[in-house]
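In keeping with the milestone schedule agreed at the kick-off meeting, the structural modelling team has produced records for the first pair of proteins. Each record is given below as a sequence line and a structure-token line. The laboratory manager (R.T.) confirmed that both were archived under the project's standard naming scheme.
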Amino acid sequence: MRNLCTRQGWIGDYDFGFLCLPNLPGFRKQAPAKFIGIKDRLPLAVAIIMGFQHCLAMLAGVVTPPLILSGPGPQHMNLNTEYRSYLISASLITCGLLSMIQMTRWRIPGTRYYMGTGLITVVGTSFTIMPVAESSFAYMYQSDFCPSVKSDMGVITQYLPCPQAYGALLGTTMTCSVLMILISFVPAKVLHKLFPPLVTGITVTLIGAHLVGSGLKNWGGGSGPCINHPASGNFIRCPNVDAPNALPWGHIKYMGLGFLVFISIILFDIFGSHFMRSAEVVLGLIIGLIVSWTTGYVNTQVINDAPVVTFLWVKTFPLSIYTPAIIPMLVIYMLIAVESIGTITACCDVSGVEVSGPVFETRIQGGVLADGLNSLLAGAFTNPPMSTFAQNNGIVALTRCANLTTGYACCFFLVFMGVFSKLASVFLAIPESVLGGMTTFLFANVLVSGIRILSYLKWTRRDRFIAAASMTLGMGTTIKDDWFSYALTAYKGSNTTVNGLIISAEMIVNSGFTIAALIAIVLNLVMPKEPEDLDNEESDSHPV
């Protein structure tokens, strides 16, 4: 407490010029600041500023899944603004609370196992869950699990709100999260044997490819019924005729708003300071918000109607288990576990702690266990599964500060933004095209992450064959996502078990990343290794 009354305790001797001055051509580059380790003393003001920086870096990733999944369209829940505002707030609060569990390292009494990493490993809603959720919601509407309005020909003309779909998603994710908890007790070397970069790289690449398509739909004006350019009705304009300055899907003005966000992100990365570069996605979104607000595209009524404060469980959802989604969800959890190992390894590296040995292995085990527990708790907190956010490793590297106080400050800002729901409702007021310019860039980063993982391969003949076999159906059904939808239509009975198995088979095959992952895993285990594969086995086990 005595330090809080001194300049040294608040500001210290940290070089703020390194953090804040822009990167302009012709000007002298700022010398790097001194490295601040996990246990080094950190001035309070520096901790608060860097915690806010971590918060901004992950903010877009935290709010994107609930924004998209709760929105309009055949693959989403079509919820009203009251529910959507709650889900954004719940996501912020959940990520703040569960990040503290992930960062706080302690030994489980009576065992040799740990919980948490003891590093700045913040968590957020995993993007990888979105393809499974979207496929599940689409089948729920088709099977009348979710309500809809149909024409005389039986064609769905309007998708009605379906909160029970979200309850089914949460129940399924909570059930499947047990797998990740069990995986945390499996040695990392065994996991790398089962899920080498060849398998995870293909899977992440296909997930990114699917998500980029979703982002482009929003960039054009929205992913609801307006995307089909109906000749009449409430959706002849996007997102609907009641929206401010509504235009048809794909209008040049919508394209321009999204492009403004996209080009702003690029400019912030080229010319911005270290602080601005770490928050470039949010800053680009703010630029798009300002321009769309001044030109009359922002729905301010959403902000006015939002409550001042909120918390978890203000809205609840009936829990159930959607059995067709279980196998794709298990694949997702295996992928999240392997990704967590790579993210935690990278965090150890930039934090200046061991990247091998018993302490490192307990950080990996504790981090994966915390991710599994967090995914279970997230469902109870009305939020989809959690995963460790890799982008915050970049903040640690940029700021050269690994002190945990900054991570806890980040958690405070996330919870604060979630509790004051007026802040969360701002994201609902932003036009879909502006959000699309941001989310398409975010999703492209997922695609690039998959390509980066694949770049570690030596691309032997065996690797090329497994990749080609996996991509045959994986990429094919990502591009043509209803390819298998008519293969099992011969059965016309009412047996719920048989119908459930048919839907499960369709979801597995039509979810490109799921079928690709299953093919890659099986072929990787059964195909004999050639001499060149054995020589390269060491380098192929590079962390994700």
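The second protein of the pair:
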Amino acid sequence: MTSIPWTPDDDDARRLLNDRIDSYEVDPAAMSWWERVLQWLNDALLLNVDASGAGSVIIQVFLVLAVVILVILLIRFFRPSVSSVTQAEAQLVDPSISAAQYLDQARQLLASQKLDQAYLQAYRAMVRSAAVRELVEVTPATTATVFGWSLGSVLPSHRIPIHEASEQFNEISYGGGVPTREATSAMINLAQTIAVAQPTATHPHDNPARLMPR
């Protein structure tokens, strides 16, 4: 009597294939380090992932995400915090200090032969007086260059010394330059002059500062 061949359905075929695969024992010595890592993750996470199949992609994505999260946490943990003193120094002027106070500090520093600091304080006195008089808009993001362009547009008769003062301010602040005593005294006099200078009405399109980023 001839036996009828048995053809399993899809579920039975899949189960038989899995049983056959599970019956094979893989020699750990013949596994690569990557296959061992995947095998360890499979055992730890109770996942049935084929190290050479599509499951490998899933594990790789999981590992990449874990590394990215770890790097983000490390950056946030070790990133140095910016102190309030540093933030204040980054601004052109301190709104809590008046122009008169800046000017007094400039004179005292000039008498002490601290020419670079005296020049900076005298320039800040000019910035504060211009801001208080609303000649120009001064924000925490305003730079000396933008301020010089803005103030020069409303005080055209003083445009050249204002621009030169802004350039000297940047050279001292960022280049470590040291002005002469004559230049520092001239900056103090310029700050006093700007404090009472009368603005000239100009069309907004004539203000070159409008082209500068804020």
